[in-house]
């Protein structure tokens, strides 16, 4: 890459540019093929945006973004004989997608959109210059480009100081931030997401603009906000992104329950700051993910597990503070917020269940749970059990090393109890020892509510005593039926 269209790079930029060149040369064949297609048709093609940024950071993936002066129909004609597959889901915005040999590319015609500053829907307009396209992008680190020709990567284009911002690890906007965020308020939340993903900070004017314009995020649909929140939580440092969101006022607009956990500690009623505790739990939960990779459900549960505390906070006569049933209240709050953000039913159910269950372990004490209680713990957690293990362990944030060690040892004991029971019985499917058909045949009753009551009785018995032999299960059911069931109880 040359710097024909940028100022001479500082010495500190040379390693960044060299790293980008290595990353791009790994895609040399594809870039050369695309460059040749567009060169021969008399069009320009530039790698652009996050692809250039990530190449400079040494984190370039397999999805590449390009921009061109060619109109979408011309791009489709050029790609059709070359691509293994094509899609036009973004064609209304000038984007054509294609894949070849497992590599995905998106090519977008130069844009020169205008906004009405009320909705985020732009008046789509195609542009004629690369410079005009770059200045409409969200941040300067995403407003760099690399010319792609038949020879591969060519000149490096940086008219807005994106490389200097990347070197300083600062997020700044190409135009005035008030204009940029007014055009698309989602960019404010995207700033917090990039803090999480890239470890960048905000330029002072960007932070100020977000603080002043945070209420405008409500112009964005819940689905778009949720998508950004997920990307933020899956970043390398989601705590930093959440802190930006809360500190600038964005959190008050889209996730107010998190900021509400910032509770003052007074001299009479000392307790942990619930907000900072929750961020610590999130960090520790991430550390426990291991080789399984980022776990979005676990991260959401770690962040939200204590959101019920502010609503249940009580000052006790002896000077302490209690949060009775905060897990119950928190699960309801979690369900309501995630539904508002239009998450899937499965996601809402999983996260709220973990919030509801996260405190139950503390009733285990010194291992005094019966086998029945252990079975109920496993059954109530269901497929979330491994996540619940991680969440409960992450929830230990005490600075008292002896107490922390005791809590972890106690949970080790619970896991050992679970493993011992699992060797003797199928804890993943704790069901009655007789099914509905067997119940109806034994009791001589038709399908109906009484079968359900009998089934529930056997389920409770199975929980309490473990697996029963068929003859024993039938005897117990008949005894219950003669005692209570036949009376319609």
Q: Topology of this structure?
A:
Blueprint: H1 13-25, H2 28-40, E1 45-48, H3 50-57, E2 63-68, H4 72-79, E3 85-87, E4 95-100, E5 103-109, H5 130-134, E6 145-149, E7 152-157, H6 162-168, E8 170-171, H7 177-183, H8 186-198, E9 201-202, H9 204-213, H10 222-233, H11 238-248, H12 250-254, H13 256-259, H14 274-287, H15 296-304, H16 309-312, E10 314-315, E11 321-322, H17 326-340, H18 345-357, H19 371-381, H20 385-394, H21 401-424, H22 436-443, H23 449-465, H24 470-483
Parallel strand pairs: 2-5, 8-9
Antiparallel strand pairs: 1-2, 1-6, 3-4, 4-5, 6-7, 10-11
Helix pairs in contact: 1-3, 7-9, 8-10, 8-11, 14-15, 14-20, 15-18, 15-20, 17-18, 19-21, 19-23
What would you note in describing this structure?
With 489 residues, the chain is α+β, with helices and mostly antiparallel strands. It has 4 domains: 13-168, 2-Layer Sandwich (Beta Polymerase, domain 2); 169-254, Hydrophobic Seed Protein (Orthogonal Bundle); 287-430, no CATH class; 431-487. The protein is 52% helix and 9% strand. The protein contains 24 helices and 11 strands. A 7-stranded mixed beta sheet has the order 3-4-5-2-1-6-7. The protein has a two-stranded parallel ribbon with strand order 8-9. Strands 10-11 form a two-stranded antiparallel ribbon. Residues 2-8 and 266-270 have low confidence and may be disordered.
